[in-house]
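Work package 3, deliverable 3.1, input record:
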Amino acid sequence: MTALDRKLIRDFRRLWAQALAIALVLACGVAILLTTFGTFMSLEDTRNAYYERNRFADVFAEASRAPRWLMQEIRQIQGVRAADARISQFAVLDVPGQQETVTARILSLPATGTPRLNLPVLQTGRLPSPDAANEVAVNAPFAKASHLQPGDTFHVNLNGHRRELTLTGTLLSPEFIYTIGPGALMPDNETYGVLWMPETAVAAAFDMDGAFNNVTLKLSRGANTEDVIDRLDDLLDTYGGLGAYGRDLQVSNSFIEAELEQLKTSALILPPIFYAISAFLVAMVMSRIIALERSEIGLLKAIGYSDVEICVHYLLLAVLIAMAGTLIGWGAGTWLAQALARLYAQFFDFPYLIYNLDLGAYALSGVLAIASAAMGAGRSALRAARLPPAVAMAPPAPPRFKRTWLDRAMAALHLSQPVVMILRSLLRWPLRSALTSLGLALAVAVLVATSFFPAALDELVSTTFDRSNRQDAILMFDPDIPETALAEVMRLPGVMRAEGQQFQSAVLRSGHREKEVAIEARRPGADLARIISSDGRAVDPPPRGLMLSQRLARQLNVRPGDLVEVEFLGRINETHVVPVAGLVTQYIGLGAYMDLDTLSRLLRQAPRISVANLKVDAQALPDLHRVLKDTPELSGLIDMTRMQRSFEATIRQNVDIMTTIYLTVAVLITVGVAYNGARIQLSERARELASLRILGFSRGEVSFILVGETMILALLAQPLGWLLGAGIAKALADGSASDLYQIPLVLKPAGFALASLVVLAAALVSSLVVRRRLDRLDLVQVMKTRE
Amino acid sequence: MNAVFRTQDLTKVYDTGELQIRALDGVNLELYSGELAVLLGPSGSGKSTLLNILGGLDHATSGKVWFRDLELSSLKDRDLTLYRRDHVGFVFQFYNLVASLTARENVQLVTDVAPNPMPAEEALAQVGLEHRMDHFPAEMSGGEQQRVAIARAIAKRPEVLLCDEPTGALDSKTGVQVLEVLRDVNERLGTSTAVITHNAAIRRMAHRVVYFLDGRIDRVEENDTRLAPSEISW
């Protein structure tokens, strides 16, 4: 090891506190990049491999009832490589030991045993025999949640007939990586499951012999998905086609896509902030080191070290800091990625492990860390290299202070000398002051942006559950039942109030924009499921009008008063032109609302309902469930109280994790910036401050100068931090908007106040730590040292 | 006698914007191989500027300077670096040791890059510091630190040793010890040595004394009889 290398290592050890403060900020960037980018890559790879190996379909479509022979025509659509016809139905299960009514989606397995597309992966047991009438396989998470094992039996209400089924095996399927029941907000494996049954058994139970109601297609490479969808829609039109769609609208896949998108956004937005702050901190520290080592640089040059060697020497110091940050970041990132993988395992069902961060993610995060530190050090290192040796050997000229209007203002204000010293120093290095303030502002911003989540989710929950969907339970019927049947629903045990609602699939068009939605139609005055207009009032859709959620209106680019084309899908395939009557505040789903009479008139039928919203006496719930399990028309039940509870619990957990992470991050940024800032000030000011002490200033008065400068910069950082934080929160809220949900932008004063308090406190503690060094300052020694 | 350095109308002007300072004003000088020359003059007389230019630390504004046949005034920075690395040893008033390196490591800074160095231990032994090799600068007295600096300068077996106020920060007794080391190096290794000082007492140990005044050479004296450093005091 050369003597210069030894100097490098000793310098690094001497600077450990400052180096650590920077390394921790850098580690945040490395860890977040590793976690988000690594998990993105790993999730995407895993999903793609799963889709590829198990032949996940490209196009999906449902119809009321289509003849089997239509499959020949479907297979001949240009671009179609394979097609699978299935029967898909909903049913209510009675699982032993489970009080709640379980809703299940039943999918038929072909007579050949295994389907060609969306190949399920057997986890335990075996597939049902093609000719068995009472055998069934279920999705593994449901089996686990319901404590079902191969050989167990449970009851199912198949089209009004109660049947006992024997479980033969548990499966995972690329179609159900994220398994969410109709109308549900998040997966609940206890109350929703997927059942695979032999085709003959399903066809017999649902009277679908020689027919299918669900088709999935695999396309050839390069096929035009849109064309295939159009052609498939044409073919299914006469059979009650509900509109074919691609992978983008497949429920499970769209949730994974949304997650991938969010990971990508995080990977692109957050790490650069940390890398930039670290670069700035490295720049600040290196510029001070080079000022301090001016004569050593001169000496190295005098004895013949070249510019390049000196430049590399100082760059390497930055690289060591970056390496420390990278190692810490890799450790934290690996841990975080594993935690994230565990979180994903709760929601996503893959047959293999998601967690396998590839070396590329490690390499990328490390290389970027080293590059940003080197960039931060670059200017200083170059300056060191370019310093003419004769100049380097001479002591530096004292910094130039000039009298400006500000000095006259300060004089007029009769500020004390320490205050004047603080202000002058801030103005003497305006760029450094500005960047320090900016760094602290970013810490404030991170906290403001984080504090927005809990408030936003409260707003989301209160709008969704307390103001809009106030029902205790939703009964689902498939097919729809006459509205008159509500009277029977009212007679169910514990039901205190029941309101009907119809869902009608339709395509809304405005100009070239179109969107497939389920129009919800209700009676005026519905009190359990209400529509909240954009001004916060509960409203009813007027006769002949359509009310749209704000996001849907934006997607269609329509405003109240505009006309939209409504093409009904399913039984009646007609197009009507309907005016937009108003906008609705809605954060989950893309709602479109109509008056039930208006919809019935357009559909030329007596009013029918798809669901019944119930107000239920909680005491009577067990009775209600018992009766519902044997109700033939029922295809499912959503327990809204249970859903709200699990939704809030999950969100709360995620928000808590996120808040902890970001709080740590903000404190690390603050400490990194404030501590280094104060250390550098102390280093530059040691003589000055020692002189003041000799002149009779007390420790407190002298540390006021040191702490004061940091705190003024921290105070100045607040408004900018609030602004940046609000901006980041808005970007996050906008970025969260998908067809599935939108997180509302809710900023509360308390969030801003808390962010400021945390950052000010962390800045104060950091500068007080440096103050302790000031207290230990050996006055005589300091005055002796040559600057 | 064989000249190590030769200057011709060497001029250095510092331009501070508001006024121009002529630090060197047409200096013509020869320094000879193997001699110990003392450059004497008050602060600001131009002697440090001359030393910096001779040592390849600075460029002249006009005029020429040769190290043997090598015209330093025509060299680019990169070649000046090589020149310093291969031929010149420096000793400064404030020692300029690297605080984070021990005595031995400070010397190794030079032996790491010089083409034909002596071992760091040998260099330190030459200045009588073989027992202090693993001490850090902060653990040594000023005189010891300056001797480390001299060891560092001679470790590369330089042809010339340029010393800028080597005793400037030292008391008389310690200063004499340092001067003894310098004379010893000059005599035993034959290293041409130029010592800058404003301390007139030191002139008496030199072969020749060059007097500086206002950027010019005032006069040059030869000492017929040189005093040993131990006979000097101030």
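The interface with chain B takes residues 2-4, 6-7, 10-11, 14, 295-296, 298-307, 309, 388-390, 393, 786 of chain A (CB under 8 Å).
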